[in-house]
Amino acid sequence: MNTKVNIAGIELKNPVMTASGTFGSGMEYAEFADLNRLGAVVTKGVANVPWEGNPTPRVTEVYGGMLNAIGLQNPGVDVFMERDLPFLSKYDTRVIVNVCGHTVEEYTETVEKLNSTDVDLYEINLSCPNVKQGALAFGQDPKVLEETTRAIKSAAKKPVIIKLSPNVTSIADMARAAEAGGADCISLINTLIGMKIDINKKKFVLANKTGGFSGPAVKPVAVRMVYDAAHAVKIPVIGMGGILSAEDALEFILAGATAVSVGTANFHDPGTTIKVIEGIEAYMARYGVEDIKELVGAVSA
What are phi and psi of 5, to 5 degrees? Predict the structure, then answer.
């Protein structure tokens, strides 16, 4: 049974990875999940300089998931390279660094610093809905997305994954724009824009008013968007959005995803990624699937 998948020439031992922002760089989770079992660890967003993030409160539970307005708080690429990468290098897993920025120059500066490291791929966050400036605009205009992708790709010495926003009219158009800009892969969906109001205080629950909605309630939307995107481009697609189980992950793979990312589920069960890997293996054994690639896009009418 072969569970290996290939993303832009980089081989992963299986198609299961973590979703950025839900797993740190693995340090907090290493005692709960064997990082060696994962196809890849996708790090929390990294910027060229430290970001403080948004004011609190910035996380709240909602029906079917959660809202977050963290604002991509991070210590910056220099601390990441000194602290996080040495930790990750101890494990037999691929490392994908999520890169964030407010401007094209900020993205390229971070990528250029990371070029000298042993990271395997970059995931470019052009779609975060809770940063007041920058990323969301990049992810909602196809022309800007294409131009930004091209600029980052020209600076990168590792394969580039563009993370797409679901907060658009046509996800297929955005997927094609990323591909036209030279993206090696796309990942989706990032969070939907949501809001929660405290009816007793008559106030917004989040200081930012809005936040990114994630969790099991978004999965049907995410599966549909992955299907649309996968049928619009020839590059690989990484699917995510509400994955709690192997069954959820397999929906994304059958819809056309080469790999999947587990996100919000990590907060309530840090062992979810391992359970998803084992569940996919059990499914393949049950149905006599010799190679995981046989399942990619295999849904039929």
Answer: -130, 160
